Amino acid sequence: MKMRDWDEGGGQPAFGHRAYWIEDILDSLDAAEIASYALSEGDGSGDDASVPRRYLVACELGILDARADADEDDNPRLASALIPWSDVRSVRVSALTSLDDAFRHATTWSGSLGLPSVRIDDPAKPDALLELWRECLVRTQTQTQPPLAGSSDE
User: Fold this and answer.
1) Looking at residues 138-144, what average pLDDT do you find?
2) Annotated domain spans of the chain
3) pLDDT digits over 47-100, tens only?
4) pTM listed for this prediction
5) If you write DSSP's letter for every residue of the chain in order, what string do you get?
6) What's residue 44's pLDDT?
7) Per DSSP, what are the bridge partners of residue 92?
8) Structural Rg of the chain based on CA atoms
9) Among residues 151, 134, 145, which one has the least CA distance to residue 36?
């Protein structure tokens, strides 16, 4: 799920105007957004511009890990780091399937990364979490080459 889809689908917290800031960063890096996820940080008190948030954006180059908050004058700011795919570590996705009250199976998802360090236990948008984690899993897999058939010089 991309940032705009997240916001249009009512995802909370919203990317809002910070999506434009993130898009500017990605444009500067000549990297396209693939999948995104937003998290609240802190207690959530304050106005929309000052509530701390964390944004994870998968792009062709890696994961942009961005943190939004407010400075000492309550002006919004965004600090970000691009972690190349080769440095992303310990991608984990977990599922718990159980029966609901009507005896239908329901699956809840969680996921974690070792680097950047993040854990999402109760995703606001499970589909967005799965899309982001799928990109992480695909892009961090090491491709091992099968051994070449050796020829004997004997």
Assistant:
1) 74
2) 3-85+125-140
3) 566 678 999 999 999 999 999 998 899 889 999 999 999 999 999 999 999 998
4) 0.84
5) --HHHHHHTT-SS--TTHHHHHHHHHHHTT--EEEEEEEE-TT--S-TTTS-EEEEEEESSEEEEEEEEE-TTS-EEEEEEEEEGGG-B--EEEEEEEE-TTS-EEEEEEEEETBTTEEESS-SSHHHHHHHHHHHHHHH---PPPPPPPPP--
6) 55
7) 112
8) 19
9) 134
Token pair 């957004």: residue: 33
What type of residue is 2?
K
> Which residue reads 């010089």 in tokens?
153
**Average pLDDT score over the chain:** 88
Distance CA 151, CA 154 (A): 9
- For the segment 115-123, the average pLDDT, to the nearest whole number, is 93
Can you name the residues that pair with 118 across neighbouring β-strands?
Answer: 113
C-beta separation of 115 from 140 below 8 A: no
Cβ-based neighbours of 42, under 8 Å, separated by 6 or more: 51, 52
Token duo for residue 111? 């996921």
What one-letter code names the amino acid at 12?
A: Q
Cβ within 8 Å of residue 90, ≥6 positions away: 112, 113, 114, 115
